[in-house]
């Protein structure tokens, strides 16, 4: 050291040596004090032993709440030296999502929107719903309810809708695991459907289905207490019929979605096309199943165009009825369920404080 050399070799005093070298005398005399981090280490180890999933933010907040004497810098230094950092969760690598403009379709069946919802039964058992709407008139096309709805169920539901209404030009989706599955992409490519994915963390880019979800949750899921999935399905089918045919929609001029579609395209589903024929076959099979189980041959059901000969043909084999009943139930929102003397659903009203 220069100062020590000047003092020993030339006999200069400490003051003159420090002045000549430009070094403060306090710096020369400084003796480092060893750090005692025992208290900080004990605090961190005791806290993480009780709360192993707490990160540094919660650790620091707890230290402030307990009025510990250490600052954030000391805690962070010791926290890193102990190597107790929680491993960061790897980000899901997705293709670049280009923002798609949220514009209503110019005609029916031009664009659909899909999304999932979740809730729980009275017993605490969780279930999910898969919702599909038409972006042209916000018409609810389908709501599937089950405890598990993987990509295979999504493809099956969309495929049944395509058989009834035809394939849309595009479907707007988020980046959920069911929607980014390769099986769904292959199915859409085979049908000539474009999958428009929204940007991650931007649910407003799929605002049509989000607004539909809010109405469905307010008027069904949050309004009743259900003890079985079947009651949810029954209540959902009844609500979708009322939503599509009777509930005024503000953005459509305060008229129901189906009436808006009929005014804009009056002959869209009234021709003898394959779409209409597919509906008639599916709905007649559903009504035949109800009559086969309950023995109901009332004039109300017969008025829907189901003759006794069609009933006998549809009910001759139970397998045929079960194979088409799922499709018929998904079509109830278009034309409504058969008349019944008891209200569907059977759920108890939820009481809000």
List the helices and strands and how they pair.
Elements (H helix, E strand, L loop, with lengths): L1 H9 L3 H8 L3 H5 L8 H13 L5 H10 L6 H10 L29 E10 L5 E9 L4 E8 L4 H15 L4 E4 L8 H10 L2 E4 L9 H15 L2 E2 L3 H17 L11 H8 L9 H21 L4 H4 L5 H8 L2 H18 L12 E2 L4
Strand content: 5-15%
List the quaternary state of the chains: single chain
Q: Mean pLDDT across all residues, rounded?
A: 78
Portion of residues within helices? 40-55%
Query: Biggest sheet, in brief?
Result: 5 strands, mixed
Number of helices: 15
Derived structural class? alpha/beta
**Rg (CA only):** 34 Å
How many beta strands in the DSSP annotation? 7
User: Low-confidence stretches at least 5 residues in length (pLDDT < 50)?
Assistant: 271-284, 290-345
Question: What does the model show?
Answer:
The protein is an alpha/beta fold. It is 48% helix and 11% strand. Helix 12 (274-294) packs across helix 15. The protein is elongated and about 110 Å long.
Q: How is this structure best summarized?
A:
This protein is α/β, with parallel strands linked by helices and about 350 residues long.
Task: Give me some keywords for this one.
353 residues, alpha/beta, 5-stranded mixed beta sheet
